[in-house]
Please model this.
Amino acid sequence: MLVSISSHALADGDPKAGEALFTKTCGGCHKIGRYAQAAFAPQLNGIFGRVAGTTRDYVYSSAMKASGITWQRDTLMAFIKDPSDVVPGTNMHFWGISDAQKLDDLLAWLQANQNAE
Ligand code: HEC
Model:
C-alpha cells in the first residue's frame, strides 16, 4: 500500500490506524486508493482541495452540489463529525466521529491517498 509523505502533509495522525478505521467506518460506502470508483458513495481520492459534489461518476444530492464547500482539513473534520450539520440535507447518513485522534488518523489516511487515481 502506497503511503506518500508529501511536503505539505496536513495531518499528524497515523495513516495505518486511519486505514483500519476507514475500512471499518467509511469503507462500506466509500472507496479510496488506486482505481477507486463511485460505489454507494463517491470515491475519496485527492479529496484535499476538491470541491464538494464534483466527481463525475457519482450522482450527488442537490444539497451537496449546492454546498460550495472546498474540502480541506477543517471542512472535512467538521463534516465527518456531523455531516448534516455541515451540509443539511446530505445523503450521507453517518453518525459521525468526534474523537480527535481518530479524526487525525482518518485524515492522515485520506492524505496518503491524495495522489491516488
Ligand atoms: C452509510 C454510507 C456512508 C458512510 C458510512 C460514510 N459516507 Fe461519506 N458519503 C456518503 C454519501 C451517500 C455521500 C454523498 C452525499 C451527498 O450527495 O449528499 C458521501 C459524501 C462524502 C464526502 C463528500 C465527497 C465529495 O465528493 O464531495 C466526504 C468527504 C465523505 N463522504 C467522507 C466520509 C468519511 C471520511 C467517512 C467515514 C468516516 C464516510 N464518509 C462515511 C455515504 C457514506
